[in-house]
C-alpha cells in the first residue's frame, strides 16, 4: 500500500502546499539535498510505469544519497 502524499505530483508541491501536509519521506529526502533527483525519478517512473526505463534517474538519486551518507563524518583511525 502506498503512503498518502508520497506520489503527489510536482505541481501540487509547487502550488505552495503547506509543509504540515508534507510526506515524511519527502521531508527526510529534502534534508539530504537530493529532493530534486528524487522528484525526477518519481516523474520518470510515473511516466514510464517501469523502473527499468529510469536507470539514469535512479543512478543520479542513488549517487546523491550515497554522497550525503558518506558526508564529512568523523575521521577514521589509521592502523
From TrEMBL:
**GO BP, sorted A to Z:** mitochondrial respiratory chain complex IV assembly
Annotated region (Disordered) at 1-29
Signal peptide location in the record?
Answer: none
State a GO cellular component annotated for this protein.
Answer: mitochondrial intermembrane space
**Can you name this protein?**
CHCH domain-containing protein
Recall the taxonomic lineage recorded for the source organism.
Answer: Eukaryota, Metazoa, Chordata, Craniata, Vertebrata
Amino acid at each position: 500500500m502506498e503512503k498518502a502524499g508520497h506520489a503527489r505530483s510536482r505541481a501540487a508541491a509547487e502550488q505552495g502546499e503547506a509543509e504540515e501536509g508534507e510526506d515524511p519521506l519527502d521531508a527526510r529526502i529534502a534534508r539530504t539535498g537530493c529532493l530534486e533527483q528524487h522528484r525526477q525519478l518519481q516523474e520518470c517512473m510515473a511516466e514510464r510505469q517501469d523502473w527499468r526505463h529510469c536507470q539514469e534517474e535512479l543512478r543520479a538519486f542513488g549517487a546523491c544519497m550515497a554522497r550525503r551518507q558518506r558526508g564529512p563524518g568523523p575521521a577514521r583511525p589509521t592502523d
